[in-house]
Amino acid sequence: MKNPGRPLFERRTPRECRQFARNPGKETAMIMAKPVVTFGEIMLRLTPPHLERILQSPVFDASFGGGEANVAVLLEGLGQPARYVTVLPSHHPVADACIASLRGFGVDASHVARGSGRMGIYYLETGANQRASKVTYDRAASAIALAKPGDIAWALAFEGAGWFHITGITPAISESAAALALESVQTAREMGLRISIDLNYRKNLWKWGKSAHEVMPELVKFADVVVANEEDVQKALGIQSDADVHSGKLDPAAYSALAGQVMSRFPNLKTLAITLRESYSASHNGWSACLHNGENFFVSRRYDITHIVDRVGSGDSFAGGLIYGLQHLPTHAEALEFAVAASCLKHSIPGDFARLTLDDVNGLLKNGGSGRVQR
Q1: Measured between alpha carbons, how far is 224 from 241 in angstroms, rounded to an integer?
Q2: Distance between CA atoms of residues 314 and 286, nearest Å
Q3: What is the C-alpha to C-alpha distance for residues 332 and 323, in angstroms, rounded to an integer?
Q4: In sequence order, what are the residues at sequence separation of 6 or more whose Cβ sits closer than 8 angstroms to the Cβ of residue 193?
Q5: Most buried of 14, 51, 64, 244, CB within 10 angstroms?
Q6: What is the pLDDT of residues 173-182, one digit of tens each?
Q7: According to the model, what pLDDT value does residue 369 have?
């Protein structure tokens, strides 16, 4: 497979050039920071407009999205250099447009491999009120599903990086993708990167023979940080608890005990973060999270999100915010609050990508989310 690259100085968009002219010191600091590498599948996302049902009118809004790419885009927006690795089909104009989209956000896509297979697609029918959102996948035989160990030059992809992020979606796609995911974390560990894994359990993807709790523990053994929602731990790791995973209501003692079980089973883990969603309807959710760092258990502020524009990618925004916070903020409690604020804001943005800046997130943390016009 080919890994077409482009040097860093060619990656600036016109907007970035203007920003650099005004404030070269900020970009210099970004370049000096070690990149975060993320790896997984990115897909063409097709969404009916205006909350319509699929093909209610013969129109789809087209964009791109995928858990690990979403993390990379957010990190770049926050000022943290990000490098995205995936496998896309060769000689494919939609794949070319996808790479151009990532580069438009400043993400380093120079280690995207090109191979056989197709571009994955997913259809999102956005829900409202009591009608739930619905995702339909069309990703069988995609390029990354056909990829196997040895197809990505991990030593080159990780060169100069400080952090590696992967999710449970990739090993769910196919047996060969699971082997490639294991190869990625093994190499990252050998090269001394910090590793984070978002468990991201997707029951509709685990079809190739093994279950999530047979595969994911082998990956988690290499992780420093794990991110999960309230049921991922049980479904992906097979660890049961007394926490009520359906209500989303936080019982601190139950979630602290659950986190303690995970960290006892995986002594390599330094941090476990669990997001908590109270789903009153497709349009109205409560949103918070908790975190265990091996010594202390922290609970975040709760946000009451009463008008959800698009919740897809909000968990990825939490993961990206946490990666940023653990590297740049002084305490785990502050990192948790930053991650929850970033993911709260994502609910207001259409599309997979959280088009946020550091000022956006800090503004919510400082001003409390009143929504007053900023002039």
Answers
A1: 22
A2: 13
A3: 11
A4: 37, 158, 161, 162, 163, 164
A5: 64
A6: 999 999 999 9
A7: 66
